Amino acid sequence: MTETSTKKLQINHLLGMENVSEEDITLMLDTGMSFREVLERPIKKVPTLNGKTIVNLFFETSTRTRIAFELAERRLSADVVNFAASGSSVSKGETFKDTVQNIEAMKIDMIVVRHSSSGVPKFLTEISNATIINAGDGAHEHPTQALLDMMTLREKFGTLKNLRVCIIGDISHSRVALSNIYGLKTMGAIVSICGPKTMIPKHIEKLGVKVFHHIEDVIPNVDALNVLRIQRERLSANLFPSNEEYNKYFGITKKRLEKSTKPITILHPGPINRDVEISSDVADSEHSLILHQVLNGVAVRMGILFLLGTKTKTN
Ligand code: CP
User: How far is the CA of 136 from the centre of ligand 1 (A)?
Assistant: First the structure.
């Protein structure tokens, strides 16, 4: 580890990117980068969180976030417990609060939580003494996704300052979009969003983003596109007629990207719906950093777990 390991975060929990300072974001990104080196070693393990117990509390499905957190925790030598709502006493009617307080009685240090309800991570800070990390809460925030996205962009471009990033798709239902907007704006990026009118929240301009409804207006003026998944599971009404229609107007295709005079870097948080929001020739192209995002997801989570797990809480 570099001298970044002697610096301390201002935050005690990672609940979202809203109100997280530039200094804290920089420290998390720098620390994540220094853990990337550990991932290249034959033995990918350091003793940093030896003796700490972390519970992964996943009430909603996940592949990338759940596995990345578990790998990050094990590579820091923490003791890891995985909780899934199915197969637990939640199915017998136990409340969320009782479940958490029973788990906490077993002497745990940190909780990584994913839940379909916005606000659950904040609620956990009120009923638990553990350090809480939000792994995605409803349509609210997904801070570790934003941090791994920012780490990937900063690695590619050297800085986030004045980087032109457009987030495309269903902004209304996207915790990834909100966390990215907060984080990128704090880091000085120029952020825009693009999507059908039915998928753009009212008054989102107040967050300092420019709104577009036509991809063609975006492509000539951006360095990177962060393409969001169409989240059928969160749509209460059909906000567009069909996947084909969405692809026709908002799908990121090679043909559309060729309208730019220079290559555009492509991010996607995953899982991707091939040939709906992104075509395979773009997802698998040399300008796509989608799998690099996944690698950075392990490294930045190691950084976050290290920084929060070794911090003495001040309030
Ligand atoms: N990006 C992301 O959150 O993916 P998972 O739902 O697979 O964790």
Answer: 8
How many angstroms separate the CA atoms of 291 and 288, rounded? 8
Q: So what's the architecture of 143-291 in CATH?
A: 3-Layer(aba) Sandwich (3.40)
CB 14 within 8 A of CB 304: yes
Distance 224 CA to ligand 1 centre (A): 20
Ligand 1 surroundings by CB, under 6 angstroms:
62-66, 136, 145, 269-271
Domains 3-142+294-309 and 143-291 in one fold: yes
- pTM of the complete model: 0.94
Cα separation, 45 vs 48, in Å, equals 9
Q: Where are the domains of the chain?
A: 3-142+294-309, 143-291
| pLDDT of residue 56 exceeding 60 | yes
CATH superfamily of the domain spanning 3-142+294-309: Aspartate/ornithine carbamoyltransferase (3.40.50.1370)
Indicate if the pLDDT at residue 25 is higher than 90.
Answer: yes
Mean pLDDT confidence for 268-279:
95
Q: How far is the CA of 190 from the centre of ligand 1 (A)?
A: 25
Which pLDDT value is given to residue 3?
Answer: 46
Of all protein residues, the one whose alpha carbon is nearest to atom 1 of ligand 1 is 269
307 CB neighbour count, 10 Å cutoff: 21
Report which ligand 1 atom has the smallest distance to the Cα of 66: 8
Distance in Å, CA 284 to ligand 1 centroid:
18
